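$ run holo --ligand "nicotinamide-adenine-dinucleotide" --emit tokens
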Amino acid sequence: MNIIVTGGAGFIGSNFIYYMLNKYPDYRIICVDCLTYAGNLSTLKEALKNPKFRFCKVDIRDRKAIYNLFEEEHPDMVVNFAAESHVDRSIENPKVFLDTSINGTAVMMDACRKYGIKRYHQVSTDEVYGDLPLDRPDLFFTEETPLYTSSPYSSSKAGADLLVLSYHRTYGLPVTISRCSNNYGPYHFPEKLIPLMIANALADKPLPVYGKGENVRDWLYVEDHCNAIDLIIHNGRVGEVYNIGGHNEMKNIDIVKTICKELGKSEKLITYVTDRKGHDMRYAIDPTKIHNELGWLPKTKFTEGIKKTIQWYLDNREWWETIISGEYQKYYEKMYGNR
Ligand code: NAD
Ligand code: TYD
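-- output --
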């Protein structure tokens, strides 16, 4: 089996590559990533030693390069992780989000149509459903929940989802889509809530909580997400959408307090800052479909996963310290300087 994994130098894509190389030693994995600020080749250091792995520095919007790659590799499957992924950046600059999610996804699927494919899988997000109110804990996102996006990021992902479903209906492309809740774990880029708070706490810097910190996210350990995608690409029904989430809802403020406690840092570091524009209140997934059809259940409890994650950041300081030492400083100043 030859699998193209796009966006594999980022957080979830790299975890997926390690998961697949480990579980299926006979599979060939070809990573396509153009190495934006969020892509990091050092993340794939170990994979690069594996003869079953190939890295290609290619932009998924580059039709010619993608077609050439398909001619060379004859992939059986494509798993598309490549996207701009940070909501705050999408509020600053929506264009690149639309370019990659919509045009990039179209190029990947056109290549699949031209050269043939057993499965095209689109990695999407629960954010396409918009948000839920805090006072209705009985409500969850199902696969039937209407798409109702809040940010340019989630809108770009929803646009891509609709395009993927249209390629299935119009051209019969064998697609699946997964919509997952917030992930955490190793190689998470330190602009996102959990790694940012870990890095700042370790440096005794303020911990910038947006608004009142009451917003709720449904956190899933990244390996459980990889396991779900593995089940979907092998056993999921073509043309179907699968929600992925572990019923692990937590308020942002409780996440930040947990990190302080685990690192032995004072909660006095917590600083409430101006809220994100259009900030979604609550995400909560109903994962009944993937459980009933594919037997998926998350394995890692949050109490265990957050400990493992913090330990990973303590053991791999060089990885994230290198990232936050360069361009990132300018980003941080711009986003948090006057907040
Ligand atoms: P990330 O930002 O860490 O990684 C994205 C990767 O895609 C990077 O390596 C980047 O270089 C690459 N990339 C971006 N544009 C590209 C292009 N035009 N061509 C080739 N490569 C390109 O993101 P992530 O958190 O790992 O998210 C991966 C996917 O999972 C995204 O599609 C995201 O929407 C989705 N998702 C993420 C979460 C989460 O909690 N992080 C939850 C649900 C779904
Ligand atoms: P984030 O990790 O950006 O993921 P998403 O917006 O896709 O859910 O943010 C998670 C939550 O944490 C979200 O409600 C915004 C909040 N947040 C902060 O309070 N402070 C921060 O510095 C960041 C990056 C996020």
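-- notes --
The longest strand covers residues 119-125.
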